[in-house]
Design goal:
It is built from seven helices and eight strands. The protein has a two-stranded antiparallel sheet with strand order 1-2. A two-stranded antiparallel sheet has the order 3-6. Strands 4-5 form a two-stranded antiparallel sheet. The two termini are about 30 Å apart. With about 220 residues, the chain is of the alpha+beta class.
């Protein structure tokens, strides 16, 4: 993270590493950092643990959730073909691919591989607001993970009955939704863990003074 700060000069950056089979947080860090012994010398914004207390639009990383929902519901299959027009108009809003171009006739596997906004926006509309939000919640979005850390944000999800078509289409490509970095990695861990969503934790076990185990996660 120090190298990333030096090379890219970002406002802030965070990194989280989790064992997807256990939910154990192996590493978690944020930059810029501060000296907790002299915290009053720093802007309070820097005191935040960005992994749990900062929310942002996940963008194309969220397409994995949309793809999972579409496959689970049987709306798409990997080899299903799709004519990519390069952009789609939804509720008067233009949603186009990352390069603004059409990829022609592609399979859904290609839509995923090329991260095509058009294909995912249309898949989101096929799923609808209720199902898209349902799967987002199944993957842990819209609520705290419950990790043993203070200041955890819950993120932002629309209420399905308040969503217009453009909200559905943009949510499907990772906009119109806000998540924490910890929520995102927890969802990806569920995919790596054969669909089992685990609660992330930083305390593996607590021992009594005599060496016996008081509690174990």
């Amino acid at each position: 993270l120090d190298r990333a700060m030096a090379e890219n000069d970002p406002v802030g950056v965070t990194c989280v590493a989790i064992d997807p089979r256990t939910g154990e947080v192996l590493a978690m860090a944020s930059r810029p950092s501060y000296n907790p012994n002299r915290f009053f010398d720093y802007d309070p914004e820097i005191w935040k643990n960005r992994a749990v207390s900062s929310i942002y639009e996940p963008g194309s990383t969220f397409k994995v959730i949309t793809a999972g929902a579409g496959l689970q519901e049987g709306i798409v299959s990997p080899n299903q073909t799709f004519a990519d027009p390069g952009y789609v108009m939804v509720s008067g809003k233009r949603i186009q691919n990352w390069n603004g171009a059409s990829f022609g006739t592609v399979t859904f596997a290609d839509v995923v591989k090329q991260s095509l906004n058009t294909g995912f926006a249309l898949l989101g509309l096929d799923l609808g607001a209720e199902k898209l939000n349902h799967y987002a919640r199944l993957f842990g979005f819209g609520e705290p993970t419950g990790i043993e850390l203070p200041g955890e944000e819950i993120g932002i999800l629309y209420s399905p009955d308040e969503m217009v078509d453009s909200d559905i289409a943009t949510m499907a490509i990772g906009q119109s939704i806000a998540v924490t970095p910890l929520q995102l990695i927890t969802a990806f861990c569920a995919i790596a863990n054969d669909g089992i969503l685990l609660k992330p934790h930083i305390v593996k076990r607590i021992k009594n003074a005599n060496g016996t185990v008081y509690s174990e996660t």
